[in-house]
Amino acid sequence: MSYAISGECCSDASCVAVCPMNCIHPSPGEPRFGAGASLFIDPRTCIDCGACADICPVDAAKPVDQSAPEDVERNAAYYADREPLDGTDLDAWQAPAYQTWGGGPRRVLVVGAGPAGMYATRELLLRTTAEVTLVDRLAEVGGLARFGVAPDHPRTRQIISTFERIAEHPRVRWRPGTDAAGLASGYDAVIHAVGAYQSRRLGIPGEEAACAAEDFVAWYNDRPGAVLPVELTGPRAVVVGNGNVALDLARVLLSDETRLAQMELRDDVRRTLAASGIREVVLLGRRGPEEAAYTASALDELSAFPGAQLRFNARPTRWSEAGLELDTGETIAAGNLFTAIGFEGKPVAGLPFDAERGVVPNVRGAVVDRPGQYVAGWIKRGARGGIGINKACAQETVLTMLATS
Predict the structure, then answer these.
(1) CATH 3.30.390.50 for the 3-78 domain, yes or no
(2) 10 Å Cβ neighbour count for 264?
(3) With a threshold of 0.90, does the pTM exceed it?
(4) CA-CA distance, 135 to 34, in Å (whole number)?
(5) Which CATH superfamily is domain 107-197+345-404 in?
(6) Is the pLDDT of residue 89 over 70?
(7) What's the pLDDT tens digit per position in 358-395?
(8) In this structure, are residues 286 and 300 in contact, taking their beta carbons and an 8 Å threshold?
(9) Which residues partner with 242 through β-bridges?
(10) Which distant-in-sequence residues (6+ apart) come within 8 Å of 69 by Cβ?
């Protein structure tokens, strides 16, 4: 399923900046930008990541099944006589007014091959003549796009093929399965794009027997070394959290054998989920619905599951075999507790760290008091925003690097 832009489009181009596939046009600098009533999404290259919907200030970007038929037709018609554009065609595509470093090749180390690191690498290739060394502790590129996307959203993972192309560029030295410790010397600049994979904790008694989103998502997405730390026990589970990750967990837990068979899952993961007996999931929000962090499209998708229940303004106080105790005095009987209240970054060796925010202190990507050190992605801005938003984030970091080099 792709997205479409309706006639309410304000044409401020926020969506253009975050689209990971360069599929929203006309963009600034192109003919017809600002002259028409709308921007348009190319349905042939849209990967259904929802980044445009997340950032649209007027709620004009919507999944096609929630869009008016005339809006869907108008978006498709704009591209009827145009070849699909690949925003990462590094040999042919150049955005206007790119600034480049002079003085010949420079050496840059990018730590982390998730979306932020890959977009940072892409920006370096397009804007500079730098030689880029790209390292990651895992054996494959992708990070969140590979190991964080729900298995029932396969289109979103199509961006991985783009990241693989970036890693194969002649000016990129891709070093998978590499610890970055001790590698910083000998480089003109280092971009740390290490993400924020550590789940936040509720801080309640009995939480050690719960399953954090970090572990459950890594397990069902087959992240190397990941194991399921709990036994799945039906018929009811509680998921504390009201973001898209919490809704992802609920959909996966409530999927029947037919739906599971359509997902890209390891056989033993599929069997374990099918045998769990979980038929009801209570999604618990500690604040009100007006502060919920999920997107409208994610909520609409969950509405197809009759076993999903949303509850708000209830704070957990204890988890035990009896279930989840709340500050209201009520206990929700359940076999499993999952926590999905967000992620936080970990300190990066040699860099300052803001423990309260879980980020490396920075100014537009430049690490405070560390010349030549930069950050991008969640370790820069906190664990918020989807895959596409990392594109604009990485661009800002690289432009800051160019301005300070």
Answers:
(1) no
(2) 11
(3) no
(4) 40
(5) NAD(P)-binding Rossmann-like Domain (3.40.50.720)
(6) no
(7) 999 999 999 999 999 999 999 999 998 778 778 888 98
(8) no
(9) none
(10) none
